What we know:
The chain is of the alpha/beta class and 117 residues long. It has one domain. The protein has six helices and five strands. A five-stranded parallel beta sheet has the order 2-1-3-4-5, sandwiched between helices. Helix 1 packs across helix 5. The longest helix has 14 residues. The model has no long low-confidence stretch (mean pLDDT 88).
Amino acid sequence: MPFRLLLDEMTEAGLADYCTKLGHDVERVVEVDALGRGTDDGAIAEYAEEHDRLVVTYDDDFLLDRGMLSRVGVLYQPDDRTPPFETANIIDAINIHVSQAEIVEHDTAFHLTEGWL
Length: 117
């Protein structure tokens, strides 16, 4: 089953496009009326939890706040220079092996690295 994703504000629009083409349900923080640019991480996590979405982010603040990790699944991209199409392929590879529910229950961030490819 495809992931339901919420892309944090610093992620590229291209990542949303590639993830959508791979069949995932994608929203971007900057395009959600209730969120938008500059929304704090707590509000993003709350929205993701309420709307059953995994947060995709380059922001390591999501890793530091254990409370957020226990409420939502986080897909963390440690290298913001990774091309969007490669990040989308990593997300898709994770989806083959792990369900969205398992990511949320894991209580830690999944790192989007080439090791998943």
